[in-house]
Design a protein that fits this description.
Blueprint: E1 6-11, H1 24-38, E2 46-51, E3 63-67, E4 72-75, H2 84-96, E5 115-119
Parallel strand pairs: 1-2
Antiparallel strand pairs: 1-3, 3-4, 4-5
Helix pairs in contact: 1-2
Protein name: Metal-binding protein
Pfam families: DUF1636
InterPro entries: DUF1636 (IPR012863)
Length: 134
């Protein structure tokens, strides 16, 4: 197994309003199993982990996709019972996107309408010591 170049982070503290239900832990387990079952159809290795909060509390459960030198996506209103297929499909697509950038119509199913944020990749510009500012 190689070093993962992509990560899926799932909020473990999100609660459905009016309940003690925290679907993040169940979503992590189901998504890990689904990614493993997808085998070669998910071309890159993904690390799947939880985090205590991603500030998407009004839209539980929140899920983020990150990749080296890629845009990051944050999705909300994700249900462990019904949205696994869309999450796996997006993992497959995201792995193949060079810069991670895609429009909402390119995202599968429910993810078209539940995107909370798309954050451009951090690009650090290095100043060449030979360049002079006039």
């Amino acid at each position: 197994m190689g070093t993962p170049t992509h990560r899926i982070t799932i909020c473990t503290s999100c609660r459905h309003k009016g309940t003690d239900c925290k679907p993040g832990y169940e979503l992590i387990a189901r998504l890990r199993a689904a990614i493993a079952a997808a085998g070669d159809s998910v071309t890159e290795e993904f690390e799947i982990s939880g985090v205590a909060c991603m500030a998407g509390c009004d839209r539980p459960c929140t899920v983020a996709y990150h990749g080296t030198r890629k845009a990051t996506y944050l999705f909300g209103d994700i249900e462990p019972d019904t949205d696994i297929g869309d999450l796996v499909s997006f993992a497959r697509d995201y792995a193949l996107l060079e810069d991670g950038w895609c429009s909402s119509v390119d995202r599968p199913g429910k993810l078209r309408k539940t995107t909370l944020a798309r954050v451009p990749a951090a690009i650090i510009a290095l100043e060449d010591s030979d360049v002079r500012v006039s």
